[in-house]
Every structure is written in structure tokens, then in C-alpha cells.
Inverse folding.
């Protein structure tokens, strides 16, 4: 058709395409939270999302239902700045609500893709909030569009809504099951209708989702820290492939997928989850300390002090120091007042090597052999700067120890990663990387060391216990949308700044 | 289905449901503007919408296409405050663009319903901006939802998009024709794809739409004043039922409906259109002056001065004064700095009868027999206050003359009107109304007088030349959505303040 | 002294230096309003300032006193947008308050110079709001600085505060009198202390100030329209040189200056004051109509229609049409939605001659001999554009009639005027001006015609009844600050955008 | 005099009066930074202030001088949100600039007191930024007011400006010396004129001020971390009572006071300064670790783990753990996304004991005997909540160790402290405090222990080496303004929200 521009000139792209370069980490894209059957539900959701803020700082949304109608609020910015306004909370009436917080895409991205997505279906309103990434979303979207569906966002969540809407099943549970059976990839979903709250995890259980209870009201949340903030009781992790349906009569559990061996994202332990959360039965802080201990055993070094790259390297550095019998010192101080928008002002100082976020503590470092512990290396640019800063502060030697294996492959399961070519470990050996970041020595944790830290004997290469694709390139699902393309993220983007 | 709340508890309502009480007028809900084939297209659209600001002050949107991708900007507020920012205009790249300005609904309504609506269809992006109201939108929407469509706004524009998307035709023109043949009511649409700009009017031509030309670039606009602001040439009014398709090769015209006699909205002449516009071949200011002359003949009065209720009563007052041989005087001064948000501050003065918008000029009025000329009476509350103010200023007699027949029925064609029971003329005789607003005499123009003012001999009651339903209750189309309900506007509304 | 940069490199300039080019008019810089002894005083002041918005749209301030402490609010923007917020009004507790609205200076000027000025003196708080200009303010300021005074704004109001503070008198009334005796120029002041509200006018009474009464509470306001909005009673104009002191015991009147013949600003009648106000005993609308009549007699013309340049030319056009026996027609329509920030977007259309504010009504003008009536010509650029627009609309002849004499000299009494060299009438004869703006004929009202319109037989050249310096160059006071300089406005300016 | 309200009903109060209750700490009120002789000076100041953000988060200001005029920007909010906008930095032209960041007072406090203060004196512009508090400011202010000075802010900085302005000396250096000789208390000032940058410390050197050098441009800053961020060289601490004057010819040093023994604020080491700063020759992190070690020796305890109250208790906890031979564990996780405005939404959850800022890590704490290390106890309310949270997480025993002596007295030297009666240690014994916060044991560092940690043998009670008034009540200066009043902070306050 003449006016058909074709997918490559389409206005759409998957969300992950907008990598924020500011911070050299992988970033989990979302946190979800829902509560059913509790007065001031939206206020509870606000608190839950606040505790999940580390999973996404750009924007957040809450949908509540008050028995008669749905209320939708979506705002760009931190929960604590946007949803704590009385007027906002007052509009979100009802005793059930779900919410979502999302990772920074680019500045102007606006509200178009902020979740929960809400739409009116034939049988009433449906809101869906999603953590993960549907790896066949575009393929499904194209089929749906050919059937006449229209898409008003670039979110794969909208694809799920369409699948629910077009299902031939008659009952919402059946329609929902019909929908999630058609999608592939990683998804931890929370959904709300006028009568139900639904939570489900993909059959591999790649992203976390926990069940909690607050004085009889059921809660779904990405991590247990979101239960702690409100004093809710942790009930259990949802099982991989489980779908729970909460109504005013109680909770019921469905298992719509063939059982599979779990492939939980091991990087949640390395970096994404909050240290005080427990996910899939393990405390995150404890795992990180054990990682540090394994690292000290695998990559020992003669040194004077162990210094974490704050804050993400701190637990592993504590473990490393304990195991190595070296003093743990705060040799780098982090400035927590750095906002997302801090731009070095003035042309003449843009290349001064300004230390906005981290500063070395010269008195601690001067003349010392320093072990720096960080959680991971992505592009290597931040590591370069930090090593230089530590050298400028007078370190005699700098030894970098990384609390994970080299990250060699992109993630397609809801994590913002650079394309593979930009991953330092995909194009350099460890020795080359050491030279690139200018350290006396560089050591990574081995993949088996990582598995030991989470309590396994070793990686079962025939049937890995976790998703570790970013380290191994071993993706646990098909990647249908990515087939035949270098990277789905190169699609053009709808510029929708002003919404 | 259990979770089906049914339409009455749905989150949706047609847009018109949110009557702004601040101003006792009917309000046209929208203005549209598009240009194809001109550098800085969005800047031109900005100017066009600025000149159509009287058709809607709440919010505006522009969609442009730059040859590769679409750009969407939607903002709450006046064009001159939002779209004139360099950063906004810079994002709207491309040599073709359409825009829309909409009437105030309630304060918190947010961006959800701001047009143009944009979505990705199987064959690429489609943007639609709409002036009017689809009277079978909900009926169609329910059918579409049963087929699996999901609706993310409450705009009937989204219904049109779905009809285009689900059409079985293969060519966009055919699909568009297929869509508009399924809808009823009033619609003057402007649409944009990557290759085409489309404009069309409903078969009765209820709302205006004109075609213009700026150095070879085609323009579609609600009124001619939007051509004047940029020095564009007026080509012609689109015909009722006409659909024009503009491509880089030129313009072509389609007539997808059975020919019908035109039923243009006569209230556009009374109040909606700008006095310097010409619509359907008549200059609005001239019609209003003739209305004033007819009124002077039909409802003469012994008086000293003719005073308009500014600004909408001014042209008719000039005509009345000329015909009656009475002096035309600015006996009431309007304060143009009244914004939408002006709320009398302080409890103790809320009922002081504060004159925020109009003030009587005592020196002109004192001791005089005053003919006040206004365009219409809706609820009567503003008239009451103005008459009281003129009396307080010392008028000896106050005679109100209204430049239209009594408004007795709601409009369902894209005009914000109160429900019928709140229309003063629907529950009072002229005598009772005179008493209610406390005037010495009250006169309305007759329906035939109005038809004479627009150049007809009289209303042809068998085949009326205009839509005059607000005066006569004679609706020129079916009102499918309203059947069996008192008023479609009573549906519950999605509260979506924060978007 | 080494670090003394001298006055020419000082950070200060008188306010008037920032001519806004957007609108080819002289602009009065301020309106003042105060009330003493009324609950919700600040809310009343808000309403009063709203009705004085035509005297200044940039920013406004209110100071109230609640019996214990003063409250100060200053905001950039229209009264109706800023002071009507509940939180703002709620902070302005007290039964006495004064306020000020000021004319646009440049965009970034910020809050530094927004009045009322408030400071703590030895004997308590003092707030002063000022309409006018002190012509020896810089001279006095330099003396005060040498005595150790520091200035934190560029407002001449601060000079008055310093004079009150440093007076050797012991009683506030005496100190205030001491202060105003040292200043020259035009001033209509309203001041507030914890016990008193003071109002005063300069000895020539150049700017207006009226006294009103609202159920026993005294009001001071720039114009009577500010009394009308709240239904207050007009008591009288303050006399030139009069100082009134309002306390809880009542009002007393002082005359601290030698009596002089009044020299009220005649331009208040021509343009500044609102048509529904009465100042110095004359209704502004009536004066303007009489001006139009005089103009029709002095500068008659064969023509078909009289068209005002809206809105300021409208009353004179009505008078002209009545006197000339020609039809009065709205041949030019004004778009009231033009905000201060409207900038033609896009480089390619900046010189399209866009008609943001006015549009000619072609159907009315085409083929006609048109008399355009405007209030004044300042730079002539706007007149040029309007004439061109009327010609483009097909006028056969265009005759411009100006409702005042040619403006040949700058105003130094609180009016924003361009420097003399930019005034069209200062460098062209009437014939040259006619050619410049491309009209068939151009006529100005004579100075005696203007005096007749305000009720005098003619101008008394030995002892003029008004200040008409902008027409005659005959300044009624010394201009101490301007001596030896071309223009005081060339002083450097403190750039204080962010405050 | 009749209208004299007297000081107690004055609109003014010293700044410190607005204690923010949100956080149970003393708070230093300000950080200052200046640079002279460097392109893009304001951008450098922005970076310097960003690194001093911990000394004040409410608002900041920068004044630059470009050789012709001064530029002033003041904004409420974090440096990284306000001063990094290109438009703001672009307005701050010049190669010399000073800046100031200030601690939160109340929300509505507005811009009135944001520093640097700028005013025009007889010999040109003067800007002053101040860290500290003038203890005789009100006394001096009253004298100045009686001489005719007017005060437009409540800042004691304005008092200094007036003293400079009214000095009889002829040279700026002499005038500045004259001014600072008249003030008492704590002050680390940075001032800017068109020719000079001046820095000075009070004769006791209570607050810090360091001198740095960036490629030949002189820098003054509150702490060394502000030098590190831009890679500037630390030159030395200013000496107590020293005044340095920087001009384009270089730097000169003056000592206008009689030499006194230094009394640097020991609390800068305990809490105010950043751990990576070195002040008065000691590295802050090192001092804090030594404090922890002293504390472990003075107040040992049988326990399983040492847990810091993050982030301020962390360095002392590391020292404690090292000295005690106990594992250091992150048993409490801090949420860094808590903004100043986070208010628990919804009435029903206001008293849920929500954990917005800290969460205990149950897996680490459960069943353990926990030593909590915090820097100080002010009101005790936060300690109560944290202890409860740790108990809820299953701690077997909770032992609190405080890295400073009990805070028993208010600070009058530029620190925001509650009034004495609200200090827990001023009304309870250590035993009562232990009961109040519900710990198994509570131990504070002794005053001599604190002195040992900073390198002294013990406190010299006859001539203390530091200002430790908050622990001892031994104020090193007169407190003139506070004499005869319970607390100067009880004065009424000018409510100036909207500025």
C-alpha cells in the first residue's frame, strides 16, 4: 500500500532503545506493585513504588478502581515528588490499585509509555503494569495490526492488552491466560479490572514477583523491600509460570504453562535488586557478600585496603575485605545530590574531568595499594574515570575486582543494556580491559563462582539454573523480534516530547 | 462476565459531558487546521490554530511528519503559551502537519483526549483531528470492543481510527471512506498519513471546513480567519459530504455519500465563528449586523441608547442601533484579563457580586432607557447579573434583545451545551424569562428572522436549510447513542487528572 | 576608590529603561490599590488590582498586616493567574493591605523590582507602592549612598523608603512628609505601616489617585473602576499635593506642599485609563467620544465607513462616526488570545507579515473609503502594518485619524515611552508620516481640540491646565536626573533573571 | 512612637528559627564558594556548590561580575536542578563569582533570604555570602535602623553590608575590616566587588574556609571537597581571624583582629563536613573512624555484628567494628530517593510507621546481638524508630553507640538546632535515654574521647581547643542578641512565601 511506510520507518520502537548513557550500568526497567482490598490503596501503592524506585526513576503511574470507575495518574519524576501531592492521591480513590515505576529513557520521552497501561475493553476497564520484555511483541503486534488493531504507544504492554481484548475466550481469566500463552520473553505482570487483581510470571520466572499480605489485603510486588516499607508480611515468591487471581473472595492460583525449570535472572542478585530484599529465597545483601568472598578467593591480591565503588560495590567489598583479611575503607565518597539533569555547565569546563558523583578520599588512598570492588563493567568509561581519580589521589597500585563475570551480551528481558558492540567485555580480553581502564590488575568473578555465591555447586551447563545470558549469551527463550536484525533497538522512534 | 461492569459503570464518557459553567454560552468544541507541502509546516499550523483559538482554549495538539517519522506534541493551555516555544516547534519537523484546538472541559482533564489522535496501524502512522461529534460513536465502539478493539481515550476520534484500521479495504482512501460511511453525526475531519492529508465533512456539512492555498501548499481549516492570519488564499468551502485527498501530486476530491441537502449549523453565524470569517459563503459580521437589524424590526423599543453585552453582542448591537436610529454606546466595559482560573478569593467576598469580567459605565447609563443586545441566553444566570449591574448603574429602563431565537434543545453535534433542563428557554416562556432576568422587556429574534438574516426568505420547515436543532429540537440525523437515555452525558467519566 | 566603578558601570537603572517594543503605545507603568479595616483585605486588593490590570501586566505584589506581622507576596504574571490561588491569599492575612501591579519590563526582570517595596525600619515595617516616577531619584540615591545607604533594587520606591528611614523627624507622618518633600516628579503613593495606611499625590497631581469607601473601610486606588468591581463607593479624587492618613480612628488629610495649579496627565484620558473610569471628574469614555467628535470636526473626510483600530480606538471612532454621520463598522477584528510571549515560530515565516493580533474583515472593507481611528501613533510601525492589512483587504482609500496630537517628546513621569528619536512625530511632519504609513490622508487632533474635549476652552499656554509634555515637550517639573545626559535610560542594568 | 510595634512584633527573625523537624540532626546552614580570575567562573561556582550541597539543600545563589555589571541568580532547590540550566549559567557572565548554598528552612520561605546578598553602595556593587551566625546582629541592626538604615531581609548578612556601607573609612579593605570588627559570633565570609574577592573568618575560626588554586585562579570554599570536584589544588586553611583580598594583581592577607586561640567547631568532624574533606588539617573520614575506635574502647559490648545507621554513622561504625573485632554489616539500607517533600499520603496510613528512608535487613539482623552506631542523638525520635525497626527485624539485643558526647545545648553559630528543651540529652540521663529509645545498652563517646579522636590528649578545660558548646554549653563568644531572652528564635517571622 502506498502510504505504508513499513516497520523500519515506523514511528515505533521498543522501549529499551533509549539507553541512558549517564551511568555505566545495566538497568532494570521497571518495578510493579498492586494491592487489593485495602482503604487508601493508592497511598499504599505510592509507598510500595517508592521502595522500588531503584528499579526505575523516570516516571510512574497508578491506576485505582473505586467500585464505580477507574482513576489513572501518570507522572514523570520520582514518586516522592509526584505522587505524594495530596491532590494526586485524592484523585486515586478506591480500595484496589496497581502501580508501576519505570527506568529513565530519554528526557523528552513524555508520558506516552508510562504504565500502567489502561484501556476500555468490551467487558470493562483493564489496567496492566509490566516488568520484563516481550521478545515477540513486534511480531504479535504486526499480526494484530493486520487484523485492525491500532497501537497508541510503543509499550509491549499494549500488545498484551490487545491479546486479552481479541481473545475468543469468554471469561477474563481464560482470556488473560490466552493472552500470556501467546507471548514470549520475560514478564512479571500485575493487572487490575473492576473485580480482580491478577499477577503472573513468565514460565521461566525471569523477573521477580512476590506475594504479600497487609492485614488481609493481598499485595503483589517486585521485591520484598516493598512489603517491608509498609510492614506487610511476605507470603512467598510467585512461582515461575504462576498466575494468581485476587478477588474479594480470596486468591486462587493457576498454572497455564507447561512446567519448566526456573531461569531467574542472576543479575538481580548482582545489581538490580535492593540489598535488603530477598528474592527467590535468597537475601540479596548476603549473596553480594558471598560474591565478594568468592571473588577474594578466586582473584586474591596483595594490597593495603579494600575500597568499594559506592554504592553498588559496597556489599561485595565488605565480603572481599572479610575474606581477604584486609581493611574495608570508604576511599571513595559518593555525592547523592546528583540529579539526572546535571550537565557540566560551560564549554570550557566540559572536559575538565569534573567529579560530580564520586570523589576519592586522598588521605585514605595516598601511598596505598588499593583493591577497588565494583559490581560490573559495562562500557568501561566510568571505571576508567574512577581508576584515574584514585590514581590522582596518590594510590600506589590499583587492583580492580568485579563482582560478576564479564558482561558480554545484551539483555532482551527488560533490562536496558547497550548494544553488544559497546560492551567492553565483548571486544576485549581481561588483559586488554585492564589496560583500557589502567589498573595494575583486573579480576572478574567466574560464572561458577557466581553460581556458588547463590548457593549452587556450579553452573549446570546443560540446564542452567539461572538466566545468565548477559554473561554467557545463552538466552533461555526464542528472540523472535530480533531475528534477522542486528538489534531491534535500531528502529526509528516516535518523537513525542510534549505529551 | 463477572468482571464486566457494563457501560454505565465504564470509565468512559463522550467528551461533551463536561460543561464549563463559567460562561453562559454554547461553545463549539474544536478547531482544526492542516497544511501539506510547506517548510515549517508546524509553525504554520501553530498560527492557524492561534486564529481558531475562539473555538477551543483548553488544549491543542499538532502532529507533523518529516518524511521518516511522525512527531506529536500536545499541550494544555493557549497556543500562544505552549506551541510558540522554540523547543516545541523544533521537535515538530516536517513539511506537512495537522493540528487541533479544543474547548475547555474540566480543569483536571489532562492530555488523554487532546487531539490529534495518533496511532500506528498495520500500514503506518495515522493522525486524525476532528471537529464535531459522532452520534453513533458509542454504539460503534461497543461493536468494535466486542471484536477485540481496545480504547485508550474517550474521544470519538479513536472510533474513527479503529474503523479505518479494521476496514477490509486495501487502499487507505477506500478504508477511510469505509470508516466515515459507518459514522453518523457532525464531523469535519483532518487526517495525516506519511503520504497524504485528508479532509472531509459529514454529508450534511454541519460543521465548517474550508480549503486554502499558501504559495502552492494546500490548507484545510475550520474558518477563513485561519487563512487570513498567514496571508493564505481562500479557495472554497469543502462541500457537504466531500472528502479531499492531498498528496505531493496534488489534490483530488471524492464524494462517498449520497448527496443530501446541506444542513450547516446556523449557530456558527450567531456565536461560534469569528466575525471576520466567511463560512458557507457568508461573512459572519455581516450576518450578525443583519440579525441586529431584523431584531430591531421584530422587537422595537422606545429607548435612549443601545448597549452591547461585549464582545459577542457587539455586531448585532451595531445593526440594531443603525436600524433603530439609536445611539450605539459602550455602556459595558469588558475586562479581557479574566483567565479561566479566576476564582473570587476569600469566603467573605464570594457573594459580593464581584464584577470580574464586565463593568457598567455609570456615566453613560445613568438615567437612560437602555437596550441591551446579547447573542443568546443559555441558563440566564449571566444575563441576570448583567441586568442587575446595569440597573445598579442607574438605568431607568432595561430592555434585553437577543440576537437569536430561544435555545430550547441540546446540541449533539460537537457543541458544549447544558442538558435541556438547564436551558432557561426550555422551561420558561419569554414573559417568565423577562421576569427572571428582571428586564422591562425581553425580545428574541424569530426563527424566520434568523433565516432572513442569513439570506433565506424563511425557514423551509419541510426541508430546513440549516441545522437549527438548538432552537427547534429538529435534529437532522439519528441520535443513536442517545436513544433510551435521557442524556448520553450522564455516563461516568474516567478521572484522569494527572496525564 | 579603586573598586568604585562609578555610576555608569553600576548595576542599576531606572525602571523605565526597558521599553517593550511589542506594542506601539505609551504604557502607564503601574496601578496601586489599598484598603484599611476590612476582613479579607488582601482578597479585596486582588480584585482591585485585577480591575487595574490594564495599568501593568507583568507582575504584582500585595503586602498585608495582620496585627502582628506583615505578609508579602510578589508574583510575575497576571493577577488572575497568580493571586487567586488559595494558598497565596491564605498567606496574606489581615484587615489592611496594599497592592501594586506593574507594566512589563523585559522578560527576565524577575521579582527584584516588583512592588510594594517592604522593609523594616527602626520603628517597624513599612510598605510602599508607587505609581509615577521620581525625577530626582538617582540624585537623591547618590547622596543617600554616600551616607551609607545600600540599595537592593533599582526602584525609585526604595529611595522614598530611605528618605523616610533617615528623616530626623520623630513621628511617622512628619517623616513621610519630610521624605516626599525631597522628591520631585510624579507620584501617587500608597503606604502601609502596622498602624496606618497613607496615600499621597505629588503637588501637581500628575498621576491619578482616588478615595473610596466599602462599608466603612477606606480605599485608595488609581482609578474608579477598581471601586466598581467590588461595589465600593467613590468618595473623591485625592487633591494634588494631598496626603491622607488612614488609621483605625479614621482619616485625616495633610497638605505638605505649597499649593500649585494642577497638571494632571492628559494622556490618561487619551489612552491609559479604562473607559469606564472617571478621573479628575471626567468620564474617560465620554472624553474619548468627544475627542472623536472634535477630530471629525477638525479633520473631516469624505468616506464610506469609520473603522476603529480595536480596542483603544473604539470610543473615539464611535464619536467620529456619530459626528461625521458615517457608519461605524468593525472592519478590524482583534484576537484577544495573544499573550505576551507569542513569538512567530520558525525562521521562514518570521517575515511573513503574520496577523497575530488584528485581522481586517475583507467583506466590510473591500471597495470602501475607510476612516481608521486610532488613539495615537508612537513609532508608526504598527500603523504601517494595519494600513497595509486594510489595503490588502481591498480598501479603496484609507484615511487615518488620530485621537490625540502628535507625540513628540518622551514622558518622565512613570510612562514607558521610547526615546525621543524613535517617536515618529519627532522626526517627521504630518505629511511625511502620512507617506510613511501609506494613507490617503492623516489627521491628528489639535492640542486645543484635545483641551476642548476635556472641557476647557483651549490650552492656557502660560499656565497649562494639564501635563501634556508628550505632545508639547513642556515638562511641568525639573528633570534633575536627566540633566547632562541624553537619556537616563542608558545606564547599565542589573541582570537579575532568576529571582 | 505610635506606629512603632517594637522588636517582638517585628516582621523579622534570625534565620535559624525555622527548624526542619524532618531529620533528627543538627544541620550546618551554609556552604560558600568563590573564584576570581577564571573564565566561566559561575560554572565553576556551580560545581563547587554542588560538592557543598550537604551543607544546605534548600536554595542557592551566585553573583558574578563581568567587568561591567553584576549578575545575580538565586533559586530554590538543589544546585543540580537549578543552576545547571544553560539559560541560568549563560546569564552569569564574568571571570569572578561567588556562591552560597543554604539549609532548608520552611517550605514557603522563598527567595528573600537566599544569599549572596547583593546591594549597590556609594562606591559600587557588593555581594556577600556568609556561613555562620552573627550573635550581635540584631543589636547592631537596631543601632543601624536608628541611624536610618532599612532592612529588606532577615539575613544577618545584610547587617554586614550596612556596616561596610556606613563605615567612615575611605578604602574598601578598611571599610570591610571596620565592619567585621563590629560583629561577633561565627563567620566565614566570601565577598565580591567589581575589583576584589574577599574571604575572612571570625577570630576564633569557628566555621571552616579553605583557600585553593585552579591554574592560577584563587578559590575560597567551605571545604576541600569543593576543590577536589574541579581538580583544584588545596593551598591552605584560612587562619582564624584572617582576611584575604584577591585582586587581579594577586592575593594579600590581613589580620584585623587580636590573635586568639582557635576554637574550630568540633561538630564539623562529627557530622557536618563531608568525609572526604580535610578541614583544619585533619581528614574527616579518618577522624570519624578514630571516633568509632575510641567509642569501641570506651563503650565495649558483647555483640555479633556492628551495623551503621546510614550514611552518617558509617565511618564510625567501620572504626568501631575494626577496634572491636566484630563484623561490619549493612543491616540497615537507606533509600536515597527520599525527597524533602515526601509526606505519607492518606490519613489511614499516616501512623503506620512507614519506613520511607531506612529499612532493616531482616536476614542480617535476625537473632543477632546488634551494635547500632550513629553520629549523634538530637531529639531521639528517629533513634526510637530505628531501634524499633531493628527489633521488628528480629534482633536479639540492640546496643546503641553514639559517635559523640550527648548534645545538651543549642548552637548559635550558624547551625540549625532545636531549642535546648527539645534536646533529649538536656532532659534525660543516659539511662533514661536508653529506656526512651528502648535499647539494651546505650553508650556515648566522652568529651575527652572526642578530643583524642581529633588528635588532642584531652580537652583543655581552661582553654578548650575547639568550640564544643553543643556538648558542654561552653560558648566561646558573647551571645549579645540572646541575652535576656530565652531564645532569639522566638521572634515573629516575616511570612514571605511567594517571593
Amino acid at each position: 500500500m502506498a502510504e505504508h511506510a513499513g516497520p523500519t520507518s515506523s514511528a515505533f520502537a521498543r522501549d529499551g532503545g533509549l539507553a541512558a548513557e549517564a551511568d555505566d550500568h545495566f538497568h532494570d526497567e521497571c518495578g510493579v506493585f498492586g494491592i487489593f482490598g485495602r482503604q487508601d490503596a493508592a497511598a499504599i501503592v505510592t509507598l510500595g513504588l517508592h521502595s522500588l524506585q531503584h528499579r526505575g526513576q523516570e516516571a510512574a503511574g497508578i491506576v485505582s478502581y473505586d467500585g464505580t470507575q477507574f482513576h489513572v495518574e501518570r507522572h514523570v519524576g520520582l514518586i516522592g515528588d509526584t505522587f505524594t501531592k495530596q491532590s494526586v492521591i485524592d484523585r486515586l480513590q478506591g480500595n484496589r490499585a496497581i502501580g508501576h515505576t519505570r527506568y529513565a529513557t530519554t528526557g523528552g520521552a513524555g508520558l506516552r509509555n508510562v504504565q500502567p497501561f489502561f484501556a476500555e475493553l468490551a467487558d470493562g476497564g483493564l489496567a496492566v503494569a509490566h516488568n520484563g520484555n516481550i521478545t515477540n511483541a513486534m511480531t504479535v503486534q504486526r499480526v494484530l495490526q493486520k487484523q485492525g488493531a491500532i497501537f497508541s504507544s510503543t509499550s509491549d504492554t499494549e500488545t498484551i492488552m490487545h491479546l486479552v481484548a481479541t481473545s475468543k475466550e469468554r471469561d477474563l481469566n481464560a482470556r488473560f491466560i490466552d493472552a500470556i500463552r501467546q507471548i514470549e520473553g520475560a514478564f512479571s505482570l500485575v493487572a487490575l479490572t473492576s473485580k480482580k487483581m491478577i499477577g503472573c510470571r513468565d514460565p521461566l520466572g525471569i523477573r521477580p514477583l512476590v506475594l504479600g499480605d497487609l492485614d488481609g489485603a493481598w499485595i503483589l510486588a517486585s521485591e520484598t523491600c516493598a512489603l517491608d516499607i509498609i510492614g506487610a508480611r511476605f507470603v512467598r515468591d510467585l512461582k515461575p509460570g504462576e498466575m494468581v487471581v485476587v478477588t474479594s473472595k480470596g486468591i486462587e492460583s493457576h498454572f497455564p504453562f507447561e512446567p519448566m525449570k526456573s531461569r531467574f535472572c542472576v543479575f538481580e542478585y548482582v545489581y538490580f535488586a535492593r540489598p535488603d530484599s530477598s528474592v527467590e529465597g535468597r537475601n540479596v545483601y548476603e549473596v553480594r557478600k558471598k560474591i565478594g568472598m568468592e571473588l577474594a578467593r578466586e582473584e586474591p591480591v596483595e594490597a593495603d585496603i579494600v575500597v568499594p565503588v559506592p554504592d553498588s560495590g559496597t556489599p561485595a567489598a565488605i565480603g572481599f575485605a572479610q575474606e581477604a583479611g584486609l581493611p574495608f575503607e570508604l576511599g571513595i565518597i559518593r555525592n547523592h545530590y546528583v540529579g539526572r539533569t546535571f550537565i557540566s555547565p560551560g564549554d570550557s569546563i566540559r572536559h575538565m574531568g569534573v567529579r560530580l558523583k564520586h570523589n576519592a578520599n586522598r588521605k585514605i588512598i595516598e601511598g596505598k595499594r588499593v583493591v577497588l570492588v565494583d559490581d560490573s563493567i559495562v562500557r568501561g568509561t566510568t571505571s576508567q574515570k574512577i581508576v584515574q581519580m584514585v590514581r590522582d589521589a596518590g594510590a600506589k597500585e590499583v587492583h580492580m575486582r568485579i563482582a560478576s563475570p564479564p558482561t558480554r551480551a545484551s539483555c532482551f528481558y527488560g533490562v536496558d543494556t547497550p548494544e553488544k558492540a559497546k560492551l567492553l567485555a565483548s571486544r576485549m580480553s581481561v588483559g586488554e580491559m585492564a589496560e583500557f581502564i589502567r589498573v595494575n590488575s583486573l579480576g572478574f568473578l567466574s560464572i561458577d563462582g557466581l553460581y556458588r555465591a547463590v548457593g549452587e555447586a556450579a553452573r549446570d551447563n546443560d540446564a542452567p539454573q539461572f538466566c545468565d545470558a548477559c554473561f554467557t549469551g545463552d538466552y533461555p527463550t526464542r528472540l523472535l523480534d530480533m531475528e534477522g536484525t542486528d538489534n531491534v533497538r535500531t528502529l526509528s522512534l516516535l518523537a513525542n516530547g510534549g505529551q
